Amino acid sequence: MVKQSSPTDSQRKFTGFLMKRDTLLSMLHDMLLARAFEERAAQEYTRGNIAGFLHLYPGEEAVAVGVLHGAEPNDYIVSTYREHVHALVRGVPAEKVMAELFGKRDGCSGGMGGSMHLFDQERRFMGGYGIVGETYPIAIGIGYSIAMQELPEAVICFFGDGAVNQGTFHESLNMAALWKLPVLFVCENNRYQIGTEIHRHSAMTEVYKRACGYRIPSEKVNGMDVLAVHQATRSALQRIREGTGPQFLEVETYRFRGHSMSDPGSYRPNVEVQAFKDEDPVTVVLEESIPDFPTESQLEALGRDNIVHLTGHMRQQGYLEMEDVTRMKGEISKLVDKAVDFALNSPEPDMHDAWRALYCNRGQEVLI
């Protein structure tokens, strides 16, 4: 038997360098797609192609991307009414999401869910929910089924800071802790419950501390830093898979737009909005993804035995340059255009579709 030697420190640094770059590129793509998709959705709303409520995500991309890149394909996702980006990052095709926003038959919910009720069984995206605080009991119900079957899966439950004052929050956290359910609670704290700032509607503004009352390990994370969110999620999910029970993340973020398309957001000081735009998570990832060419001293620090590997990779793959970003944005723009065309050309659902949905699997519901 050949004994494999342990990697050297320089090899670890080299591997970590490549992994970080690949992870950043993947995250950057999803964040750029999220921003472009949401801004186009806003345009289509003003054109009358999207009706009803439309809650957009610009500014919060690092949360969805960081969390969902840390999840496994078999994990379940339960989202809120601001869930377009959650669905996209989870892998729901952009044209399916856009068609659902348009209320068309080819949408991921058959055109009968709309903006707040996206669903994808194949990807275990268990839906967005329009009722504030509705995600908790859905998530722990799935978590209970996983625990009863002793499966290695987890549930990621998204909710906003405004939902932590609902009774279902306390009931669900208590039950999840009591039964050690495999649920990761993720609070997307964007500081405003519709138009009310958190310190005006919550006596305890540090949301993560609420979980301590149920002995659930909790952590506050910078939601404008996608890598910080990703690392915190990976660590939390690992603890869940080890059987320690539920985990809780409060991810501090900020939405650049109002609560919905009908909300101008004038209750927020302009200086506050601009301060957070200066910390735009998409811009941060762009800057991290375009590093300077390594100096000789930096190559020396990696170890001379790795220089050939590193320079070979650089020649073969190249660093991400601004022209690469421009090309990526162009590809994403075409993808969003294609999604809009798909939605425009998709047929409207009819009464036969409605009846099929009403009687689908009635009385024989099972965990997907």
From TrEMBL:
It is an enzyme of class 1 (oxidoreductase). One of its GO terms (biological process) is pyruvate decarboxylation to acetyl-CoA. InterPro entries: DH_E1 (IPR001017), PDH_E1_Alpha_Subunit (IPR050642), THDP-binding (IPR029061). Gene3D superfamilies: 3.40.50.970. Coiled coil: none annotated. It holds the Pfam family E1_dh. Keywords: Oxidoreductase, Pyruvate, Thiamine pyrophosphate. Its cofactor is thiamine diphosphate. Its EC number is 1.2.4.1. Residues 31-286 form the Dehydrogenase E1 component domain. The keyword Oxidoreductase applies. One of its GO terms (molecular function) is pyruvate dehydrogenase (acetyl-transferring) activity. PANTHER family: PYRUVATE DEHYDROGENASE E1 COMPONENT SUBUNIT ALPHA, PYRUVATE DEHYDROGENASE E1 COMPONENT, ALPHA SUBUNIT BACTERIAL AND ORGANELLAR. This is Pyruvate dehydrogenase E1 component subunit alpha. It comes from Thiolapillus brandeum.
